[in-house]
């Protein structure tokens, strides 16, 4: 194949990766490009270079996940808070609100893959619910609030990031659930916030909704596993797991927080 033909094929593989719900198993051309990426080192290098030129990183390419991409800082493809807010129908875009949604996404990832073995096992499928994510975040807020109170007594400030302290206290003050007239979760509740975050992840091909009971249950996808592997290196993810508010329920991938489901 010519150089131009190779470049076009590399770009096409990247374009497939930018379609969140497109998978190699559903498209012969996509599957062939994924196979070539794994077998042809020159084509792999070319694809990575084309991606880099677009402000993207190739995190993984496999028959299960397809091409999984991540935007670099300042990339035109980077999802900014304003874009996320529009897609998730977030009314407020203050700094505290941004931190709150960041905590929700961290909790979702830690529930989906609480153990290193879960991330290493390509066949592992986690399950998360709106209720579970909300419960984990509330328990994390309670623990952080206790730590802050002890630190204040000892005249030893807990953190030099006041927006984080405002965020966990703001989350704890919000009601967990309240129904609208048509029976949906009210948007200004914490479970309403979590529900929007999980729907956004489903739209990006990271989760698949299993049912709609109690706000919804979702299963993880190979694309999400690749993304969380990258996230697991982040100190914020490690700190959330270190609070010990997430535990594994059984061996079937059904995960439950180590707190009451009635929270």
From TrEMBL:
Superkingdom classification of source: Bacteria
UniProt protein name = Uncharacterized protein
